[in-house]
Specification:
Helix content is 83%, strand content 0%. It is mostly helical.
């Protein structure tokens, strides 16, 4: 009987570890969207400031607005626009880093900022960009939900990430 109980406990432990692994992967997938936002925002800025009108949908509306102004101003304006893109990218990369560490605040604050950024796109009638923002917000929500589940089962003393 005790051997059966030990087997059951071992099986439960294995199932819990497998579930934790799946949850961790979902958290990483959700948090990775912050890295995509950061990286493609900088790429968008470089593309636009080099003279092209093409850009990725995942980037930030705030950097697009600064890029447009920087392109008009040229010279110093382009440098300021690129600096804004780098700062915004750094902030979103930070959300990705802390999101992967199962810090719920990173998903919440990053998601709220990205939602506000979608408003900028709507104001400039970039409805495709705003629609893609909605999709990314959904993916960030899935990451937040996974982070909540992982945080609920992780012991308080367990190291993060």
């Amino acid at each position: 009987m005790s051997n059966l109980g030990a087997t059951s406990v071992a099986a439960q432990g294995a199932a819990l570890n497998a579930g934790k692994g799946i949850g961790d992967a979902r958290v990483r997938r959700g948090a990775s969207w912050f890295y995509w936002i950061a990286g493609l925002s900088v790429v968008n800025s470089i593309i636009v400031l080099s003279g092209s009108n093409v850009h990725f949908l995942v980037g930030l509306g705030v950097t697009e607005a600064f890029d447009a102004a920087g392109k008009q101003a040229a010279g110093v304006g382009s440098g300021v626009a690129l600096a804004v893109s780098l700062v915004a990218a750094g902030v979103f990369a930070m959300f990705g880093y802390f999101g992967r560490k199962v810090q719920l605040w990173a998903f919440v604050v990053g998601g709220v900022l990205y939602l506000l950024d979608a408003g900028i796109l709507v104001a400039f009638a970039d409805y495709f960009g705003a629609a893609f923002h909605a999709y990314v917000l959904y993916r960030l929500y899935l990451g937040l939900a996974a982070a909540k589940n992982v945080a609920a089962v992780r012991p308080a003393s367990a190291p993060l990430g």
